[in-house]
Design goal:
344 residues
């Protein structure tokens, strides 16, 4: 039978799973449950408080999109542990295609978060956000669908490259995250166009550059510019600018976890391909990605004041919700000051 996880004829219909140590299964189960729970909780809180002043921004729209993509990605990874499914070509194509779609889309959306720090776009009064120069509705209607379309276009190339989905487990029977090997760049540099896998190597190199190199080049400078600007204007030291400071912290932490998970996934592959390079990490890219999917919503709750207040309002019922409080503040910020001068 075709595929590395195919069943033997004498096994029948017995379900087989990936042979992994107990710590791998414990980590996979715990991280998957935690990631799905936190992402769903984040979506519920944001939808419930969608009219709140501080949530009417491009950043919120991007975070919602990333949460939906993470839930979709976990749903893709879950059935892959059953090796009986690996023998089906259609399953392998779907697994690799959605993995590439997730990698490209999340990478571009994180870059959009970095650009948001430089030019914040939101639908809120300028009293609390003096750096805001544009509305948050137009960019999220144009750029987010565009980035998802680019990710879908990259994923659509997977079915025509059979080598990508011929085997979805590595030499140690571990499931990769997106069927993309960043170390193919080494093969491309060594062999060039003479390599029989030139087009596959080129495709995987381009996806790796978009998923790893591009965020690393774009996001740190935008974070630096936004941080210096906030310090110069004193936004980090005033309570009324806490949302702007929290959004900057969200982007910093999300980027750090994203790049950290990429390093944890790529370094073991480099260790296998390069003799002069050695690390002590296990090649478990799926666990790194699940940890990333679980850490992102936790960062949203801990570093974004609007999301935290929404969670607090949902857990502790009060007479006034966060959304109504924001509406009152908007009315006060936009209403003119009227002074009555009485003649004595």
């Amino acid at each position: 039978m075709e595929g590395s996880g195919a069943m033997q004829d004498n096994v029948g219909d017995e379900i087989q799973v990936i042979p992994s140590p107990s710590w791998w299964w414990a980590g996979w189960s715990g991280l998957s449950f935690l990631a799905i729970f936190l992402n769903l909780l984040f979506l519920v809180i944001v939808i419930k408080n969608r009219k709140a002043r501080d949530l009417r921004s491009l950043l919120t729209a991007v975070l919602i999109t990333i949460s939906v993509l993470d839930i979709l990605d976990i749903g893709r990874i879950a059935p892959s542990i059953v090796t009986n499914l690996h023998k089906y070509k259609e399953f392998r194509i779907v697994y690799c295609s959605i993995g590439v779609f997730h990698t490209i889309s999340v990478s571009l959306l994180l870059i959009l978060l970095g650009m948001y720090l430089v030019c914040p776009c939101r639908d809120a009064p300028p009293l609390y956000y003096p750096a805001s120069k544009c509305s948050g509705s137009l960019p999220q209607k144009l750029l987010i669908p565009l980035f998802l379309l680019i990710g879908g276009g990259a994923a659509g190339i997977v079915p025509i490259m059979e080598e990508l989905y011929a085997k979805i487990v590595d030499d140690k029977d571990m499931v990769p995250h997106s069927c993309i090997d960043p170390t193919r760049l080494l093969s491309l540099l060594d062999n060039g166009e003479t390599s029989p896998t030139f087009w596959t190597d080129l495709y995987q190199t381009l996806v790796s550059l978009v998923g790893i190199a591009l965020p690393l080049l774009v996001i740190p400078p935008t974070i630096l510019v936004a941080t210096v600007r906030a310090c110069m204007h004193g936004h980090c030291c005033q309570v009324k600018y806490k949302q702007s400071a929290g959004e900057l912290l969200v982007v910093v932490l999300v980027t750090m976890f994203y790049l950290g998970s990429l390093v944890g996934s790529v370094l073991p592959k480099l260790d296998q391909k390069m003799d002069q390079f050695s690390v002590g990490l296990q090649p478990v890219p799926v666990l790194w990605e699940l940890a990333n999917a679980a850490a992102r919503p936790a960062i949203y709750f801990l570093a974004n004041p609007a999301v935290w207040d929404g969670l607090r309002g949902a857990c502790c019922s009060t007479k006034r919700s966060y959304g109504s409080l924001s509406t009152k503040e908007d009315e006060v910020a936009l209403s003119p000051v009227v002074e009555r001068i009485s003649s004595l």
